[in-house]
Amino acid sequence: MAKDAPTPKRKDAEALNKINAITSPATKATKARDRNELKSKRLAAREAYMRGEENALPARDRGPLRRYVRNYIDSRRNVGEYFLPAVAMVLVLSVVHNKFVSLIAILFMYVAMLYTVLSGFFMTRRIRKAVNAKFPGESTKGLGMYGWLRSTQMRRMRAPAPQVKRGDLI
Prior knowledge:
mainly alpha, 59% helix, 2 domains, 6 helices
């Protein structure tokens, strides 16, 4: 068997396999443009999420009930939002080489944890009552836990960002 043409170099054969008939070959400029477009879309989506726009929220945060619970929690000062800074303080104090200071710090942490859990339990009951009063006939399943978990986050770190000020009545 005779050959009609010389065997192509490996680089040329691989280049033929990489060309797509539908799209043009990617260059550094097109890759950079696509990367910048994707980054701007992600930033816009995150800003919409933080503003609380309904279409940008994940399924767990959507709906008027969840919005009401978020506003209910954000309009009040909760003990749970101070739990993380309290635990950080306890960690710092537990490093001190004084047994009494370490013991007091650990006891403070347990008391704060117990108080946070108890206030969360009563808060979930208040949330259910408020939701039943505002939205009669709607299911309150999961709303109490949703509110309690939101209340344990520091206000500045909540996502979506709080839409109401503290003390605003809903």
